[in-house]
What does this fold into?
Amino acid sequence: MVDHRSVDVGGMRLAYEVSGPPEAPPLVLLHALGEDASDWDVVAPVLARSRRVHALDLRGHGRSDWPGDYSLQLMRDDVLGFLDALALDRVDLVGHSMGGIVAYLFAGEYPRRVDRLVLEDVPVPRPREQSTPIRPDGKLNFDWEMVLAVKRQIDTPAPEWLETLSKITAETLAVAGGPGSHVPQEGIAELARRVPRGRVVTIPAGHLIHDTQPTLFLDVVMTFLQPPGDGPAARPSLQTGDETPLRNG
It folds into this structure.
């Protein structure tokens, strides 16, 4: 059962979906640019068997407010406000693409609040060639001004973001999408090296790993999130067709 809720964070409405046993360890999911909480619908029900899953709509996305003021740092602090509002002291945190940037900025700035961190196909913060995106036709489920603001930051990340990676104390798993992803894979390997307790695993599924290969993604993530001494993680029961072998790095 998924509940659709919202919470006030500094005068801004943050929408989220929550599922799983209320007493289970909390897990927070952060979506990619232009997505919302529903992007996790394929994998969230399996995660919710053993976790209290909170999937957010980040500011400027979905049912959350579109305040017109956007940055990845503001999204990071929205996550802090969300955890404080729900009295969640420490959580496991999973972020995909842009959501992964928000996740590592949060884990580096507020290391006490994160136990384990999963970064799904997240680029290392280094400058890249800039381009101007073209607005899609029709009604959008996100604020286009948010896209422009966030893309500028991803194209020219603040130099201190590299240092932020070294401040992460959480055990961290970087899940790389392999050669089919547009994200440079050597950058994901570098990101994992810069995190003191980081490692990388490759699922050759392209950028949308949790959507393209949900069973493999769940197998890797649930095993990583399993606390020591709790026994083997239950294997997911999704049917996704042919699976692709993992590569550790």
Notes: The longest strand covers residues 12-19. The helical segments are 44-47, 72-85, 98-109, 144-155, 160-166, 185-194, 209-212, 214-225. The radius of gyration is 17 Å.
